[in-house]
Amino acid sequence: MSQQESRHRLAIYPGSFDPVTNGHLDIARRAARLFDELIVAVYAFPDKNLLFTVDERVVLWQEVLTKEGLNNVRVEKYTGLTSEYARTVGGQAIIKGLRSPNDFDAEFRQGLMNRKLAPEIETVCLLTNLEQLFVSSSLLKEVARLGGDVTDMLPGSVAQALQHKLGQTNPV
């Protein structure tokens, strides 16, 4: 067996995950099948209006992954450049989920920048499942705030956490 064949394949799945959706979980499941190990890398300080703290987002992911039994996936929080974080942990790939042409455009530009900064790390894009095509954390938070039911688009523990965070007594 060559050195290349015996190399531990580690991928990073970065994002803000505010909150974790079934779409995020689907991408993590699929990436976990492709790599020996996957790190769900929760970005601590995205330029977004966050509902959950970074520690809460990490815990939500851990709960979801425990329930799923994805033993080759772990969750870590990080700051700074994704490419530098991936390099620091020994990652060979950065996983990105694509839902739309807009996602492709943004991820394409980001992937090229990551390639410039860390040419040894590949960007791997996975297409979303059709049932998750329109789902985004931002949209789900907005719908939930307005009283809409989003429980079928979130893992169970995440739906409960969102309901609690929004101070709702009715199902999210």
Automatic annotation (TrEMBL):
Keyword Oxidoreductase: no
Keywords: ATP-binding, Coenzyme A biosynthesis, Cytoplasm, Magnesium, Nucleotide-binding, Nucleotidyltransferase, Transferase
Pathway field: Cofactor biosynthesis; coenzyme A biosynthesis; CoA from (R)-pantothenate: step 4/5
GO cellular component terms, semicolon-separated: cytoplasm
Necessary cofactors: Mg(2+)
Family listed: Belongs to the bacterial CoaD family.
Matching HAMAP family: PPAT_bact
Protein name (database record): Phosphopantetheine adenylyltransferase
Originating organism: Dictyobacter kobayashii
Gene it is expressed from: coaD
